[in-house]
Structure formats: C-alpha cells, structure tokens
Design brief:
There is one protein chain. The protein is an alpha+beta fold. It folds into 3 domains: 46-124, Ubiquitin-like (UB roll), CATH 3.10.20; 143-280, Phosphorylase Kinase, domain 1; 287-458, Transferase(Phosphotransferase) domain 1 (Transferase(Phosphotransferase), domain 1). The chain has helices spanning 17-38, 68-79, 101-113, 238-254, 287-294, 299-318, 347-354, 369-372, 380-396, 406-415, 428-437, 448-454, and strands spanning 46-53, 56-63, 84-89, 94-98, 119-124, 143-145, 199-209, 212-219, 225-232, 265-270, 274-280, 331-333, 339-341. Strand 7 (199-209) and strand 8 form a beta hairpin. Helix 9 (380-396) packs antiparallel against helix 11. It starts with 16 loop residues before the first helix and ends in an 8-residue tail after the last helix. This is Protein kinase domain-containing protein. Residues 1-22 are annotated as: Disordered.
Amino acid sequence: MDVPSTSASTPQSELPPLAQNEDMKKMVQGLKDLMSSRRPPVSRDVLKIKMEYLGEKRCIEMGRPVSMKALEDHLQRRYGKAINMYYQQGKGEVVVSIRNQDELDRAIEVVDRTGQRCLRLLLSKHQQLSTGMTESRPDPSGTYTGSIVEVPYSVNCSSCGASRVSFSKSAGDSSCSSGVQWDIDERKLSAQSPRAPTHWKEAKCIGSGAFGSVYLAYDVDTGRDLAVKKIPIIPDNRELSREAQGLEFDVQELGRLQHPRIVQYLGVQKTSDRILIFMEYMTGGSLKEHIALVGSLSDAVAKRHTAQVLEGLAFLHKNHIIHRDIKSANILRDSMGNVKIADFGSGKKMQSLASQQGAFHSTIHYTAPEVLLGKTAYGRKADVWSVGVTLVEMLTGQVPWKEFEPMAAMFQIAYEEPRIDLPPTVQPVMADLCKVLMNKNFEERPMAAEVLLNHPAFKSQP
C-alpha cells in the first residue's frame, strides 16, 4: 500500500506544525477509509450479538426484528437458568439493563445510529450471597484476624509517585469554604501503601449496592473507626480471580494517594469468597443520602461541595486517574459538612466482580453523552460532565432525566440537549456553572482545574 509522504525537498520536520497536523489527519483518514472499505457491510436483516457471561464469550446472529422472548429462550437453553441482560458499550464504560422488548429495541437503535457492528451484552445470574465470610471467622470476642496482602511497589505506576505540582496558591488543608482560593495541589504521595488492620471488629452495615456492602469497623490495635467494603467473589473462577487480584493491587497502589478531598484507601484483605477494602470512615454518609434527607441544597453549599469535588478530581486527573463513576452516592460527607470523593480508580474491576451477582445498578444518568455515543473513551472531561449532573442534583434535589428508565435516559442524554431545569431562586452564576460543566461538546468542556481557576462562581465569596 502506498503511504502518502512529503516531498524530498521539504522534510517532514521542516513543515510548519499546522501542515504536519493536516498531513497526519489526511493519512489517518485515508487508512480508516481503506479499512472500512474492506469490511463487509452491516446486514440490516441480521443482528450480530456478542455476549459475555463470567468470562465466557459467545457470538450469535438473530434475524431482525429481534424478539426479546426469542433471545431469553436462547439464553435459557444455553445456560439452563434465568439470565439478566445488560447492554454494554466499549470496554464496560456503559452498562444498561435490558428488561423488556422496548429497551431491547432502543439498545439496537443505539447500535445502528452509532455505527456499531454488533450488540454487546453482558450477562449475569442473580444470586443471593451471604454477608458473612466462610473461612475467616471472628474469635469469641468478635475480633477478625486478617492476612495482609503485600503488593510490591512499582516505580512505573503512572498514578503514583508524581511530584507535587501547584495549579494555584495553596489554601492549606482548609475546607475551601471561602470561595477565593481553591486548593488543587497534588498533595502528599506516600512512598508506602497503608496496611489493612490486623485485628478488627465489625459493627453495623452502613451501606449496600451492586458492588457489595459497606460496614463500620473498629481497628482493635489502633482504636480508630474505619469503613470496610465487602465484595463477594465466586471461588475457583479463573477470570474473576484475575479481576480480584487486579483489584487488590490497585487498592494497595491507590492507598498511596493522599489528599484532603479524596477518601483514603487503608488497605485490602482477601478471603476465599470476599475481597475486603478498608477505607477512611466518613461520618456524614453520602451526598445522595443527605439530599434525600434534606432536599435541595443552597447555592452556597452546592458551590462549596462542587469546588471540593473539582479539587479532588484535579488531583486524581493530574495523577492520571479517571474516576469513571462520579455521582452523589460516591461523594461522602464528614461531620463538618465537607465532602470527599470515594471509590476512585477501582470501579471497573468492582463492576466486573459484581456481574456475578446480577445486581448492576445503572448510573447512566451521570454518564457523559460522548461516552454513550462511543465518540471517545471515558476521559477526564466525562468526569467533569458527571460533576455537572451532580451539581444539578444538589440544586434541584434530583438528577436530570430522572423520570426516564435507564435505557430511555441513555437515549435522551445521547441525542437531546442537556436538561437543566433549575429553580428561579438559583443565582445566574450557578446556572452558568451547570451549563459549563454539562457542555455537550466535550472538546469545549473544560478540565476540572480550569473550572476552578476560571469560572466566576469561584472568584467571589459564596
């Protein structure tokens, strides 16, 4: 194949930068066109369906229009049990439940409109797993003795070991409630991961979801309270064992990151059927629970919370970590009403492990349109969109498109203009902040640090 090249009298390195970029774009587009021309055309009579169940991947073809009942019958015959179906896009960036014919039709329409060549389904079987642990039992006093997972330090870890870089004047370790200086420094990166407690007692359950349950725990040796997330795993499953090992490593490495706006990971332990992730205990619960209890928040409080979340995101993004699941349930409050970001850097692996339970709870309402449309991989600007949705939730008491089921909401977010219906009492500067964060054109949407430094909402007292 002939590859376009520049003239011998004009070396590529001597071309102006714009000319280099234009030549590169033309060459890349030419290669894309060539590859597309070699692909067989997508059939409008037959739909290819790729399915994944507990690491096993299969591909089938079904005649259009695809019947939900026929698809369910096929899965019942193949697996001998009722199977839950989830539309999946990319590498798990989008996972939405398919429960009826209408939702299946919408998923297929998204496949066709976005130019995908097949419908990808993530399959799972719902099963109840006990909240206790099989091999690790407490002693008569109720104390667990855990084995510490040792993970070798990697000097090449892109998310750790970065030098401290300041975007602005440091406001110290304050809660950033002044609205004048926003602390988005990189903060401390510990050379050693924190260790999970050796002896600890379990108290009450303080939360549960698709990824497992969270309990209040007491470290017998230090006397501190902490939170422990229990993630069930199926023993003797090779694919899930790899995911579990990857999650253990990630949590250990992420534990080295320290910043006042992120929830600290405190270590990880593994039993035969559980992964236990120990975290800093946030006494105020989640922002989602707080909004459900008190309703919409004032402009001043919503602005402070948004600034604190953006501070945490700026830190994570500078350390090459994309959260992928920013939402009010993953923003936790302390006793003073300040917030921190939780569950960063581990969501995808936890999602893979959760699929064994068939208990996905879609957060599609927070997902950026470019991710839903497959225009780009999940990036830092998608996190910023999710902050915008959370800000609207704080100001109104509910997320945009709340009245739509996940698949219908996905369609609305992907193809319609953002819905930002704010009360008339909301200040214009806060309304503008919502629009900036939820700019549908991701190329024009700013980074977290840019919003903090440049938006008028953060240049004056709240």
